[in-house]
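Q: How do we represent a protein-ligand complex in a form that can be generated token by token?
A: Start from the inputs.
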Amino acid sequence: MVPQSNTHPKTRTRLTDLLGIEHPILCGGLMHLADANYVAAVVNAGAMGFISALTFPDPQQLRNEIQKCRDLSGGKSFGINLYISPRQDANDRLEKLLTVVQDEKIAVVETAGGNPGPIIPLMKEAGIKVIHKVPAVRFALSAERAGVDAVSLVGAECGGHPGYMMVGSMVQAADAPQKLSVPVILGGGIGHGSQLTAALAMGCDGILMGTRMLVSSELQAHKDYKQRVIEGTGLDSIVVQSTLKNHHRVLDNQTAQAILALENEGKESYEDYAHLLNGKLSKEAYASGKTDQGLLDYGQSACFANAIEPVATILTRFIQESLIAKERLSGMNTL
Ligand SMILES: Cc1cc2nc3c(=O)[nH]c(=O)nc-3n(C[C@H](O)[C@H](O)[C@H](O)COP(=O)(O)O)c2cc1C
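Then emit the structure tokens for the protein with flavin mononucleotide bound:
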């Protein structure tokens, strides 16, 4: 039997305890997309969401967005995504935003990209939890030593940065919990609730989604963009920038093909690619719905995104699917 949305039992894990959330589900930062509207919808549905700080590069803009999210979520806790770039110029912007995160006493940050070590003391001082996102267990072990509160491991299937080692989610899910003491969250290719049950069975404390949520009604993107995600199978994602050792899973479009062409020509310097990596193109694509241009993070779990729906509907169904999978397992007889 499928439980009703307001009656389904809550699954308690170290992640739900750490963040004080109802469901062991994180909806990760989405550059240009994860704003107050979307993140408030996620936390109102009992999961944890993250406003992407770099989407609001002016500190006052970020403060306004945080206030808006507080208003929309009735003061519930929410998070901020801090992408630490390997490029120093991008991190200069990040430093100003860090001050905002500290002043505003945000509950939790999702860090990704570079080493979070240098910012951990600042976050701890402000009582902010740190979840660091990595593409392989060896980076998770370094993050644990640096003092993070939890780690998210993303597999090769993920939208965005799967890491140059391209380890699959199934391997990460069983491997990471055996090697780490902090809570482990599994991401990469997740969009069906049965995967939450599987991740918990393998020792993880929760899951993380990005691509599956791109069709949320609350997401500020053109309906033609969401329609493209619905039509997508995930097989239309490709990995570019492997030449720069910055593997990036995106929607296969003209920009992605132009990057691949340069890679095939053997171009190795960032400058050769800069005009195509420019975030302006992606921002325009989300706003106009013209998805042939821009480097648009997009992963294999697009196969689960079949309709534009409110976040609460997507997550309620996801939890129901996870409970059905749990019942399926408990109903299996041993021989
Ligand atoms: C459109 C899009 C934008 C993203 N932007 C960011 C970002 O700014 N910072 C970040 O840490 N991760 C970003 N990610 C990665 C997600 O937070 C998450 O780790 C990933 O989507 C999980 O894998 P999945 O796409 O298979 O669900 C983005 C992903 C997508 C699909």
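The chain has 13 helices and ten strands. Residues 28-31, 33, 52, 81, 83, 112, 133, 154, 157-160, 187-190, 208-212, 297-299, 301 surround flavin mononucleotide (CB under 6 Å).
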